[in-house]
Design brief:
Number of strands: 2
Distance between the termini: 67 Å
Helix content: 40-55%
Structural class: mainly alpha
Oligomer: single chain
Shape: rod-shaped
Order of helices and strands: HHHHHHEEHHHHHHH
Radius of gyration: 26 Å
Number of helices: 13
Largest sheet: 2 strands, antiparallel
């Protein structure tokens, strides 16, 4: 699972502005910030991205985490307690420590990928997630984001590629040259139903109306002769 993620996204996005402006992070002593960044790296490489679990899915214990960052067990759990108390990271019911931001971003990325592969517009689909505020209840925050996406996905009709005849009929019924309509079908079909800007075609009828229903493309009998 982790290997698939690395092939899919081999780097960890790091938002410098967010790091410098986050009040919970800036309030930490410099050495605590360094330890938190180490944890973020381990969370990124985790089999469940954003969560401190081992390859078998078992949550790492606090002692294991302390050893992973190169510390000993003498009074060094104070920094981890501080991270949890200040809301820098959180602990699940099973004891796993996680980054709310990384978990949310990973869910958003997966939704973008799945939606784009199905012909939807991933940017519009997850706009609410990208612009959502972060509150102090991580479980509710993540659940609410996914609920928003689920609702949008239910309302969005999946794109269904038209047949050549459907496009010809649509042009003909609206007074436009069906032969030209057929050339437009091949134009989009050859591009896997992406337009010239690289955006997926979500509604083929709307695309034909807005781009190709022009006077010069009308049927000969429909043209207004001077």
């Amino acid at each position: 699972m982790a290997k698939d993620k690395k092939r899919d996204l081999p780097y960890m996005p790091f938002y410098v502005g967010d790091w410098l402006k986050c009040p919970e992070v800036r309030a930490l002593p410099p050495d605590y910030r360094g330890l938190w960044f180490d944890l973020l790296c381990y969370m990124w490489e985790s089999s469940e991205r954003g969560v401190m679990i081992n390859p078998n899915g078992r949550p790492y214990t606090d002692d294991e985490i302390i050893r992973m960052v190169g510390l000993d067990n003498q009074n060094t759990n104070i920094w981890l307690t501080r991270l949890l108390t200040d809301g820098v990271c959180y602990r699940r019911d099973d004891g796993a420590i996680f980054s709310k931001r990384m978990v949310r971003d990973e869910k958003t990325r997966q939704i973008r990928r799945e939606t784009g592969a199905k012909g939807g517009n991933p940017t519009l689909l997850v706009k609410d997630i990208d612009n959502s505020d972060v509150n102090q209840n991580p479980d509710n925050d993540i659940d609410n984001d996914i609920d928003i996406v689920s609702e949008i996905k239910r309302k969005r009709t999946p794109f269904k590629k038209p047949t050549i005849q459907e496009v010809r009929n649509y042009f003909d019924e609206n007074g436009y040259n069906p032969d030209f309509g057929e050339t437009r079908w091949h134009y989009y079909n050859d591009a896997n139903w992406f337009d010239s800007h690289g955006s997926p075609v979500l509604n083929w009828k709307q695309k034909m109306r807005s781009v190709w229903f022009k006077p010069e493309n009308k049927k000969q009998s429909e043209r207004i002769m001077p």
